[in-house]
Amino acid sequence: EPEVTQTPSHQVTQMGQEVILRCVPISNHLYFYWYRQILGQKVEFLVSFYNNEISEKSEIFDDQFSVERPDGSNFTLKIRSTKLEDSAMYFCASSSTQRETQYFGPGTRLLVL
Amino acid sequence: AQSVAQPEDQVNVAEGNPLTVKCTYSVSGNPYLFWYVQYPNRGLQFLLKYITGDNLVKGSYGFEAEFNKSQTSFHLKKPSALVSDSALYFCAVRDRKNYGQNFVFGPGTRLSVLP
Question: How buried is B41 (Cβ within 10 angstroms: 0-12 exposed, 13-18 middle, 19+ buried)?
Fold first, then answer.
């Protein structure tokens, strides 16, 4: 069964450093998403992406965040200058259409020191 | 604005007993409703969804959920719990009329099935 994959599984970085989280969505999906889950808290929407542009973003997704689909398979989330409060599990998801189920990857646990 | 409530942080049931994990929602229009499960150190796995049609939805691993429009609820149920069902369960909603594509998740309910 196709699945969403994410790399790395864990990332430790120093405050102020840039990080790039990578995702490979399910191959025939057209809609891509990033969510985050701060430890012990609920899953929060960050951004959705379709047709090579952001279709929606939350208040969390400020100028420090960016997304990109650099090729036909990868979908990346970049945090330009990480803050302590960016420490969280970041989930990528994809769906075939806007209405359909979103399938989530296993997540990348980011720790900012 | 959309919102989801899961009134119980923790649900404990004995193996073999029926289980219910509660979810209530608030949207301005008609909802799309979903249940996901999260095992330790794993991502979110899709269980089931309600889009339209029959209010009783059957999903993976023997789970089902009933959409109740008047009570704005979408409780997750299973007739006979397994120890392996122990996990964190999230209810999620999307508003059909909302142009956004994102889910709003509930805070999660930790299910513990005791042998």
Answer: exposed
Residue B53 contacts A where some CB pair is shorter than 8 Å: no
Whether the pLDDT of residue B51 is over 80: the answer is: yes
Mean pLDDT of chain A: 92
Give exposure, B61-93, as e/b (b: 16+ Cβ within 10 Å): eebbbbbeeeebbbbbebeebeeebbbbbbbbb
How many CB pairs below 8 Å do chains A and B form together? 54
CATH architecture type of domain B3-114: Sandwich (2.60)
- A97: domain CATH number is 2.60.40.10
Question: Given a cut of 60, is residue B50 above it in pLDDT?
Answer: yes
> What is the token pair recorded at B58?
């059957």
Q: Which domain holds residue A96?
A: 5-112
The whole-angstrom distance between B10's CA and the closest CA on chain A is 13
Interface contact A48-B90, CB threshold 8 A: no
In the predicted model, what is the mean pLDDT of residues B6-27? Answer: 96
Q: Where are the domains of chain B?
A: 3-114
Residue A41, pLDDT score: 83
Of B49, B51, B90, the CB nearest to A43: B90
* pLDDT for residue B96: 64
Which among B45, B90, B102 has the least Cβ separation from residue A33?
B102
